[in-house]
Task: inverse folding
């Protein structure tokens, strides 16, 4: 939808309450979106990593992200899951190579879907140079 934006606030909110008490930082993230994308008054990255491309290879899936400069995991928790043709999801090991993420799919026959940080109380551990987190997602392959 034109002239709209979304910000991820799971890292500054309260995991047990959908309404973040830290309204100031939520407002600043939304204001930055407008200042960069609508008014072009400032030039900075205002989005966390966003999945851009998926490549299936033998026993792995390579994910490329937009806004990926300084891509990093903030902890070692595996938050990527891959589903087989029956739709059963299994956590997979994710490794970072530069600004791509490689998912080990060995043992998963015919991978069909990927999801990241999926669940009601999962905090994304994937950020970029600005510290902004990636949003949770589920995609078909």
Result:
């Amino acid at each position: 939808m034109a002239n709209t934006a979304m910000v991820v606030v799971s890292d500054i909110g309260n995991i047990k309450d959908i309404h973040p008490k830290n309204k100031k930082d939520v407002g600043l993230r939304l204001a930055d979106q407008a200042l960069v994308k609508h008014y072009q008054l400032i030039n900075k990255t205002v989005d966390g990593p966003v999945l851009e491309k998926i490549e299936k290879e033998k026993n792995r899936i390579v994910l490329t992200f937009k806004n990926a400069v300084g891509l990093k995991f903030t902890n070692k928790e595996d938050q990527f899951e891959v589903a087989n043709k029956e739709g059963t999801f299994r956590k997979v090991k994710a490794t970072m190579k530069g600004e791509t993420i490689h998912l080990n799919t060995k043992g998963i026959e015919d991978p069909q879907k990927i999801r990241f940080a999926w669940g009601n109380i999962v905090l994304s551990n994937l950020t970029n140079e600005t510290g902004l987190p990636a949003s949770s997602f589920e995609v078909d392959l």
The chain has a mean pLDDT of 94. DSSP finds one helix and ten strands in the chain.
